[in-house]
Design goal:
The complex is a heterotrimer of chains A (about 425), B (about 425) and C (about 325).
Chain A (H helix, E strand, L loop, with lengths): L19 H21 L5 H22 L10 H21 L8 H20 L5 H17 L4 H4 L5 E2 L16 H24 L1 H11 L1 H7 L3 H27 L1 E2 L6 H14 L6 H19 L3 H15 L3 H8 L1 H5 L3 H34 L6 E4 L2 E4 L3 H33 L6
Antiparallel strand pairs in A: 1-2, 3-4
Helix pairs in contact in A: 1-7, 2-7, 2-10, 2-11, 2-12, 3-4, 3-10, 4-10, 7-10, 8-9, 8-10, 11-12, 12-14, 16-17
Chain B lengths: L1 H16 L11 E8 L6 H20 L7 E8 L4 H13 L4 E4 L3 H17 L6 E4 L16 E3 L4 H14 L5 E7 L2 H17 L4 E8 L8 H10 L3 E4 L4 H13 L5 E3 L7 H5 L7 E5 L10 H13 L8 H17 L4 H8 L3 E3 L5 E4 L6 E2 L2 E7 L13 E8 L1 H4 L13
Parallel strand pairs in B: 1-2, 1-3, 3-4, 4-5, 6-7, 6-8, 8-9, 9-10
Antiparallel strand pairs in B: 10-14, 11-12, 12-13, 14-15
Helix pairs in contact in B: 2-11, 3-4, 5-6, 11-12
Chain C lengths: L1 H32 L6 H19 L1 H27 L4 H23 L15 E5 L2 E4 H23 L1 H11 L1 H6 L4 H27 L5 H16 L4 H20 L4 H7 L8 H8 L2 H4 L3 H12 L11
Helix pairs in contact in C: 1-5, 1-6, 1-8, 1-9, 1-10, 2-3, 2-4, 2-8, 2-9, 3-8, 5-6, 9-10, 9-14
The chains are: A mainly alpha (about 425), B alpha/beta (about 425), C mainly alpha (about 325).
């Protein structure tokens, strides 16, 4: 028997507590990136689009609190966005005309309060059940609010909506918000804060139980939580952040109309959140950025951009329900196993043939649109740097051939890319 | 599943790659932005308007353009939505265009006017001029007036004053029904009708004052039933676009045979919808000679030329040509494209339009003063019809510019003043 | 006054039966597969557009048969190649899928037929007033619409209750597993029901196109109302759909006809109208202005108080 030695503490890293860098590094990096972005992207159209993206990010994240984390499909989330926005716009007008002390940076808080209040009211009866009933109630509320704009036209401004002027509110510390870039910093600030808050919420017991209620409501009741109450808290929180997004909208665009509460706006946020991926926290962020980019850039070049978006959405629902972020997350093992190199070749080939097929599809769709809707007398159209005459057979056969070629290529390259992926995801020892 | 991944990635690239199809905007042209509905229930109005603008620009270009440059009119779709219009306005400003024409609707006009004012205040070196050719809510040249807004159509009160003068003379009317679209213009028409009828014919009883959502009602039969049930002898309406077409159809179907006093019940499908049922019954108040009878030569030539190019459409807004010509003249007089100087040249300008009328851009509120015409829908004596239907507008009354002028409450702030 | 009531009832019936044609297909599909088909109104729109194109070549009447057939085939294909795939991912995914289909159909219609409204007209054979009463007349075409809708209702009733196929469908509504075990091809039954439901929607489009307009936004106009009807009537119940569509049709038509304002109602109930400027808007609201909201108000109330709807037996 050995003599007892003095107790020696062995320091073991606490696996449950990652280093500070890992925990907060991502957020700090995001903050720095946001601050530098307007200096890196200098195109005149860049800052307005980034403002739009920032608002969409907050809105989509708030929607995912319901859909991805809570399992509640809502068709009327834009109502809280809109109500928050209207309240913020009225507050700004009061600030400009009646001297209410409300500096512009605090306006999103007013929006958030509006969204929270309205969500608290609606949630009191709509969160009784989840599933189809919840979705239908949200649809009904959305339609009611859209129709109310003509009835309560003092609050909603009727057909013209409510306009406001952010330059006339009291200035805080000499900050006036006359340029888009000033507004960008405001939006970036609030987007970061809101995202951090929503992330923190998802880690609290309320957030965790929302996940539980999504997966197995009956079991959560057995564990002692009221699924109604959990859903209600989630609902109110998501309404709060939707209202914040609405307030940012009011500051950026200085106009709110009934459309902002309508089904189209709610449909857009559903699309962007789903495309981004509802299973991860960053999914909606990615979806919001991609969707806004496509919406603003594509609409300059093609009138059928919503068709492309709709097709992307359908493809996501049918084939890739995990969304963009989910796809990226699936490559995690490959990254960790340093297997990425094996993916480059097959992916590149698959990408090229897909591109070929897509050029064919886009070409055909654009030509059909032109054929149907071009003004009288125009027969040629610029497509992919070429001028094509849609009344001749050549461009049609060319694009159709591209589709066929690309399709065949995808049949050949697809399984190879899939095999490469499976291979790369294997741990190194098993290869 | 993974092939599908490639599909998804590819589809994403599709969207990015789709950004390669594009059209080019000619350089060295004076670009004019046209922000009006090119889709939706009012697309017919907007598209025909765009065509008339391009036609007017062609005319000017054939005469050499102005300052050695030609005009180019570019259409932007506002979908009759203030939000969408502001997005398009941002694009217009981003594309470097400083002259914006817009007319449909007044709701959009308010948003654009407001946005232009804010933009001009914040960006004095990149100002934009807003030329309103058809949004006739009086507020735009009264409480909401500003230096960079010019209106080329007689506003709702001016037109209602003329209309009520005609109604006043019709002693058979004892009960009036007012129906309109629920937005600023519809409300302005209703208000003006009530006030002016009370002044001129206090014996007329207003048996209905109805506002319906704009662009949303497909079947007007319930509204027509209401009008019939109220016992009205006549109807006043400011409805335009799809709302006017549908109202006309439902009135015909429902057997409503009373006189209609309207602002926009002609052309872009409305004349065809009214057809034989409306002969000598439907009247219109508008801003220029209707073409029948005996159109002034300048107007007749203009219409014939247009019909040759676009046989399916009509010249139904002479003010479009007036607006383009006056803008060109103002640019010429100012000798520059600088918006402030062009505006200074435009205000107070006198002009003779193709109708042969002398019109004046009032300095106080930037409202174009003009004589007002009242015409009736008929097929007798029609040289220039609408919608190729054989029916058109026949001139009944013309009110002189002096009588047609209304006072203004505008307190305009001028730059540098 | 009685003239107004009479014609309002007639117009309400026409509108209500049209809603029924749409709602019947939707409620059958929901009853069978638990999927609330967002694309249903899009099929309605497709029916109108197909019939318009057919009418350009052959006149109105062939379109009455051909268009619903085409839409039905399309619907069956959507179920077979799309919905069946998503079925395994859950109800939320199915809802989202049909939502995506609705968007894509809407955009394809704009692509192929263009953005402006199409002048799909009432056939000349029916374009005259059926009868005159007092000072108004009632168009024959609307009577035709009513006739077709009633015929479809009776037809559906007969098929579902009298034929073997109908009995199988009814059984699959409540016991799909058992029906499968008895040897029937349940997925095929689902596909057929989806196809028939879509064909009904298409037929509604064919007859409603001339009256309600043929334009790309027509799906959104009726889409939400049809959901309201189906939910209020009870998901899966045909009788419920019938009652609810008539109810909504008549309520909406009458609401427009009435000039009563909230202030009037309050006054009649003895509540004095306060002249608070904030509430001024509220007192001036007329029933006609509120007409668009009424169905949704009913929807929310029914969902809160009786989620199974008036005649339904299940909520999800």
């Amino acid at each position: 028997m050995s003599t007892p030695t003095a107790a020696r503490t062995i320091s073991v890293a606490d696996p449950a507590r990652p280093s500070l860098l890992r925990q907060y590094g991502g957020w700090v990096a995001a903050a720095v990136a946001l601050a530098l972005l307007p200096h890196v992207l200098r195109a005149p159209a860049a800052v307005p689009v980034m403002n739009q993206m920032g608002i969409a990010v907050v809105f989509a994240l708030s929607y995912n609190m319901l859909l991805g984390q809570g399992g509640m499909l809502s068709f009327g989330h834009a109502v809280y966005f809109g109500v928050g926005g209207f309240l913020a716009a009225h507050a700004l007008n009061l600030a400009a005309q009646q001297g209410l002390w409300l500096p512009v940076p605090l306006v999103p808080i007013v929006g958030g309060l509006g969204g929270l209040l309205f969500a608290a009211i609606v949630g009191s009866f709509s969160t009784n059940r989840a599933g189809t009933v919840f979705a239908m109630i949200s649809l009904g509320i959305a339609e009611m609010m859209a129709a109310s704009s003509l009835i309560f036209d003092r609050f909603f401004g009727g057909e013209e909506g409510i306009t406001t002027n952010r330059a006339k509110a009291v200035s805080l510390g000499g900050l006036s918000f006359t340029t888009d870039r000033d507004v960008y910093y405001l939006i970036a600030f609030w987007a970061l804060i809101s995202a951090a808050a929503m992330y923190a919420f998802s880690l609290t017991p309320a957030g965790r139980m929302a996940n539980a209620v999504r997966d197995n409501p009956e079991r959560t009741e057995f564990v002692g939580y009221s699924q109604r109450w959990v859903r209600y808290v989630s609902f109110c929180a998501s309404g709060l952040f939707a209202g914040v997004a609405g307030g940012l909208f009011a500051v950026n665009y200085e106009i709110l109309t009934a459309e902002n509460m309508g089904l189209n706006a709610s449909g857009s946020v559903l699309l962007m959140t789903y495309i981004g991926g509802i299973g991860t926290f960053a999914g909606p962020v990615l979806g919001a950025i991609v969707f806004t980019f496509l919406q603003s850039m594509l609409s300059d070049y093609t009138s059928v951009w919503l068709l492309y978006l709709g097709l992307v959405f359908l493809a996501a629902v049918l084939f890739v329900p995990v969304g963009l972020a989910g796809v990226l997350a699936m490559h995690g093992p490959a990254w960790r196993n340093r297997g990425f190199g094996r993916l480059v070749g097959p992916y590149l080939v698959a990408a090229v043939v897909t591109l070929v097929a897509l050029v064919g599809v886009i070409g055909c769709l654009e030509m059909v649109y032109f054929f149907v809707s071009a003004p009288a007398g125009q027969v040629t159209k610029r497509l992919f740097w070429l001028t094509v005459n849609v009344y001749t057979a050549t461009p049609w056969t060319a694009f159709l051939a591209l589709i066929v070629l690309g399709g065949l290529g995808m049949r050949w390259a697809g399984p190879r890319a899939a095999a490469a992926f499976a291979d790369a995801s294997l741990p190194r020892a098993a290869r | 599943m993974f092939r599908a991944k490639a599909i998804l990635t590819g589809l994403m690239m599709l969207a990015m790659v789709a950004s390669l199809a594009s059209g080019a905007i000619g350089a060295d042209a004076i670009k004019i932005a046209y922000i009006d509905p090119l889709s939706g229930p009012f697309a017919a109005t907007g598209e025909n308007g765009l065509q008339q603008f391009k036609f007017a620009a062609d005319h000017l270009n054939r005469a050499g353009g102005v300052l050695g440059q030609k005009f180019e009119v570019i259409g932007y779709d506002n979908k009759v939505s203030p939000q969408e219009a502001l997005i398009q306005l941002k694009k217009v400003i981003g594309d470097g265009i400083s002259f914006v024409f817009q007319g449909n609707s007044s709701g959009v006009a308010h948003a654009i006017s407001d946005a232009v004012l804010k933009h001009n205040e914040r960006n004095p070196s990149a100002r934009v001029l807003y030329l309103n050719y058809s949004a006739v809510d009086p507020a735009l040249t009264n409480e909401k007036c500003h230096y960079w807004h010019f209106r080329f159509d007689a506003h709702a009160d001016m037109k209602m004053a003329a209309l009520t003068d005609v109604i006043k003379a019709n002693t058979k009317i004892k009960k009036m029904y007012i129906i309109g679209q629920d937005y600023s213009f519809g409300k302005a028409v209703a208000e003006a009708a009530v006030t002016m009828l009370k002044e001129k014919r206090p014996d007329i009883q207003i048996v209905g004052n109805e506002l319906h959502p704009i662009g949303k009602v497909q079947d007007f039969s319930p509204y027509v039933q209401k009008i019939i049930a109220s016992g009205a002898d006549a109807v006043i309406t400011g409805n335009w676009g799809a709302d006017m077409v549908n109202l006309a159809k439902a009135a015909n179907d429902g057997g409503l045979k009373v006189p209609f006093y309207t602002y926009y019940a002609a052309s872009d499908g409305v004349t065809a919808a009214i057809g034989a049922a409306g002969v000598d019954r439907i009247r219109l108040v508008h801003d220029a000679h209707p073409g029948n009878p005996n159109a002034p030569k300048a107007l007749a030539d203009y219409i014939k030329e247009y019909k040759k190019l676009y046989p399916k459409n009509d010249i139904n807004q002479v003010r479009i040509q007036t607006g383009m010509n006056m803008l060109a003249a103002a640019i010429k007089r100012a000798g520059t494209l600088n918006v402030d100087k062009v505006a200074a040249a435009l205000e107070g300008m006198e002009w003779t339009n193709s109708s042969g009328d002398r019109v004046v851009m009032r300095r106080e509120d930037h409202q174009l003063l003009m004589p007002i015409y009242i015409s009736v829908h008929t097929n007798k004596n029609i040289t220039f019809d609408f919608d190729n239907s054989g029916f058109g507008l026949l001139l009944e009354n013309k009110i002189d510019m002096d009588k047609a002028t209304q006072p203004t409450t505008c307190k305009m702030q001028r730059p540098g003043a | 006054m009685s003239e107004l009531v009479f014609f309002s009832v007639l117009n309400g019936l026409v509108y209500g039966m049209l809603l029924f044609m749409l709602a019947s297909g939707l409620t059958l599909i929901f009853g069978m597969m638990g999927v609330l088909n967002f694309a249903h109104a899009a099929f309605y729109m497709l029916g109108a557009y197909f019939a318009y194109t057919i009418s350009l070549y052959t006149g109105f009447w062939p379109g009455l048969v051909a268009a619903p057939l085409a839409v039905g085939l399309l619907g069956a294909a959507t179920e077979r190649y799309g919905l069946r795939r998503v079925h395994g991912f859950g109800h939320v995914a199915e809802l989202i899928f049909t939502f995506g289909v609705a968007i894509v159909i809407g955009e394809v219609v704009q692509l192929v037929w263009g953005r402006p409204a199409k002048s799909y007209e009432v056939p000349a054979a029916l374009d005259f007033p059926l009868f005159h009463l007092f000072r108004s007349s009632f168009p024959t075409y609307k009577a035709f619409m009513l006739g077709i809708s009633v015929a479809i209702f009776l037809f559906l009733l007969a098929i579902l209750t009298r034929t073997r196929a109908g009995l199988i469908i009814q059984a699959s509504l409540t016991h799909p597993g058992m029906v499968g075990m008895l040897g029937h091809n349940v997925p095929r039954v689902f596909m057929i029901v989806f196809g028939i439901g879509s064909a009904l929607a298409g037929l509604a489009g064919v007859i409603a196109g001339p009256v309600l307009g043929t334009f790309p936004g027509m799906a959104q106009v009726l889409g939400s109302i049809v959901f309201v009807v189906v939910v209020i009537g009870g998901l899966g119940s045909l009788t419920g759909a019938f009652v609810a569509s008539l109810l909504i049709g008549i309520v909406q038509t009458f609401a427009v006809a009435l000039n009563v304002s909230v202030g009037d109602v309050a006054g009649a109930a003895g509540i004095r109208v306060a002249s608070l400027p904030a509430l001024h808007d509220f007192w001036r609201i007329t029933v006609a202005q509120v007409a668009p909201i009424l169905p949704y108000l009913l929807l929310v109330l029914v969902l809160i108080l009786r989620p199974t709807g008036l005649f339904g037996t299940r909520e999800t």
